[in-house]
């Protein structure tokens, strides 16, 4: 697995930095000309003056919550009955519209994201290659194929490698086991929790799945304990870090030391809520500037926490490394591969005024997430609890247990989502 997807992965770090910063001014000019929101973000700035990383501090960080609000505001301004203005759909952040975009997706919010026709648009082929996926193999893809882009992320990456893809999607565990037994894939792409469920179902059914040797996981934490669990079954699992906005940002290699940052992005770690980078090694928010000409996000704050690791990876890839996902800068969390936002819980309360206060508690170990909505209810009758559970599922796309609690019993600490999972 020492072969690289591209030789530039082993380029001299100063050479890569010069190349990125040399390409950045033209990328900013293109973005300014085609994406109105980026033009506003860069207002009063000369792209040609951005010559080193320190110069990026002059550009304000745009955070995911601001992107969502920009999209919501733009869509509300769309005149009823008028032809759809695509720039409004994406809040002015996209440089492409219908026709130029091959697909459009919706993440919780909803936040709409375009995917252009460019091969490996999301940039995950590099991560699949580092995980050992090779041309001519079958990739069993268990990421969702509807609404969110995860399924397409892996499919387009696998196609870029020359692999065949089975679109397994999510759910239907017994059928997944049978299809894996019939097709004998060498590779899996999806969340670690779902593959664990499939393998445990196969065990219960007395079905052997010996063909599966490699997996690329994303959408959830992948702690060492889970890595060891798969290794005991002869499956080498690797992780990749990405988002629906930015595509693949960093990926694991055979060295198993942090995540190597993807090519064609400029990644910074900033103090949460500010524009200022922190010192290398200090934990802060991941902020990314992408050279993607179609969806040119500039200093986009992901809300994820990480830190830069010193030195180069022993695998020979020379780009900077991060320590991986270290939590959220806000209360947003990820459950079974889906982000859950405080705003979604607020939406539940808006639908159910009988609930005086609520807190979503996420517990269990990674791969066995348990989501419970603790709700202060004066009359916790079965019908009210069922309606509440239905609203949570509709707004978050996830099932949750409802636990009624006495009015006034939840802490008055401003916390809406409490993630108490173990990541060991």
Topology (elements, then pairings):
Elements: H1 13-34, H2 36-41, E1 62-63, H3 64-76, H4 86-89, E2 101-107, E3 111-116, H5 125-130, E4 138-141, H6 150-161, E5 164-167, H7 173-183, E6 187-190, H8 192-205, E7 214-217, H9 224-231, E8 236-243, E9 247-251, E10 259-261, E11 265-270, E12 284-290, E13 300-306, E14 308-309, E15 321-322, E16 333-335, E17 338-340, H10 342-351, E18 355-363, E19 370-377, H11 382-396, E20 401-405, E21 417-419
Parallel strand pairs: 1-13, 4-5, 4-6, 6-7, 7-8, 18-21, 19-20
Antiparallel strand pairs: 2-3, 8-9, 9-10, 10-15, 11-12, 12-13, 14-15, 16-17, 18-19
Helix pairs in contact: 7-8, 10-11
The helix/strand class is alpha/beta
According to CATH, the fold-level topology of the largest domain is Rossmann fold
The general outline is: globular
Q: Order of strands across the biggest sheet?
A: 5-4-6-7-8-9-10-15-14
CATH class of the largest domain: Alpha Beta
Extended strand count? 21
SS strand fraction: 15-25%
CATH superfamily of the largest domain: ANL, N-terminal domain
The number of distinct structural domains comes to: 2
Major β-sheet annotation? 9 strands, mixed
Mean pLDDT: 92
Low-confidence stretches: none
Cα-based radius of gyration, to the nearest Å: 22 Å
Query: So, CATH architecture of the largest domain?
Result: 3-Layer(aba) Sandwich
Descriptive report:
The chain has 424 residues and is an alpha/beta fold. The protein has eleven helices and 21 strands. The chain has helices spanning 13-34, 36-41, 64-76, 86-89, 125-130, 150-161, 173-183, 192-205, 224-231, 342-351, 382-396, and strands at 62-63, 101-107, 111-116, 138-141, 164-167, 187-190, 214-217, 236-243, 247-251, 259-261, 265-270, 284-290, 300-306, 308-309, 321-322, 333-335, 338-340, 355-363, 370-377, 401-405, 417-419. Strand 18 and strand 19 form a beta hairpin. 42% of the residues are buried.
């Amino acid at each position: 697995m020492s072969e690289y997807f591209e030789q530039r992965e082993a380029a001299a770090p100063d050479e890569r930095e010069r190349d990125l910063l040399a390409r950045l001014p033209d990328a900013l000019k293109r973005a300014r000309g085609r994406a109105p929101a980026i033009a506003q973000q860069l207002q009063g700035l000369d792209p040609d003056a951005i010559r080193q990383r320190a110069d990026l501090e002059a550009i304000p960080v745009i955070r995911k919550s601001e992107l969502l609000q920009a999209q919501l505001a733009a869509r509300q301004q769309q005149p009823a009955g008028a032809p759809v203005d695509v720039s409004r759909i994406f809040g002015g952040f996209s440089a492409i519209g219908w026709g130029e975009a091959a697909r459009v997706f919706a993440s919780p919010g909803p936040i709409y994201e375009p995917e252009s026709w460019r091969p490996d648009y999301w940039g995950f082929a590099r991560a699949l290659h580092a995980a050992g996926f090779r041309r001519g193999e079958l990739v069993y893809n268990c990421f969702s194929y509807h609404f969110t882009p995860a399924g397409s992320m892996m499919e387009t990456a696998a196609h870029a490698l020359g692999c065949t893809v089975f679109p397994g999607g999510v759910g239907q565990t017994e059928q997944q086991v049978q299809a894996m037994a019939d097709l004998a894939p060498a590779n899996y792409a999806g969340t670690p929790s779902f593959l664990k469920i499939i393998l445990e179902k196969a065990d219960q059914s007395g079905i052997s799945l010996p063909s599966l040797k490699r997996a690329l996981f994303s959408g959830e934490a992948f702690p060492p304990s889970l890595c060891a669990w798969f290794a005991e079954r002869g499956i080498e699992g690797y992780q990749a870090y990405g988002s629906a906005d930015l595509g693949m940002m960093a990926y694991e290699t055979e060295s198993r030391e942090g995540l190597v940052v993807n090519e064609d992005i400029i990644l910074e770690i900033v103090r949460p809520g500010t524009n200022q980078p922190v010192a290398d090694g200090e934990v802060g928010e991941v902020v990314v500037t992408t050279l993607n000409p179609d969806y040119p996000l500039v200093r986009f704050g992901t809300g994820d926490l990480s830190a830069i690791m010193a030195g180069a990876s022993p695998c020979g890839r020379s780009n900077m490394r991060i320590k991986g996902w270290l939590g959220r800068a806000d209360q947003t969390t990820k459950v079974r591969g889906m982000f859950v936002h405080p705003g979604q819980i607020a939406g539940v309360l808006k639908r159910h005024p009988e609930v005086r206060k609520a807190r979503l508690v996420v517990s269990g170990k990674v791969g066995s997430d348990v989501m419970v909505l603790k709700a202060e209810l004066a009359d916790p009758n079965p019908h009210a609890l069922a309606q509440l559970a239905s609203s949570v599922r509709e707004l978050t796309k996830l099932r949750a247990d409802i636990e009624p609690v006495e009015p006034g019993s939840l802490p008055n600490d401003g916390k809406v989502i409490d993630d108490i999972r173990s990541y060991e």
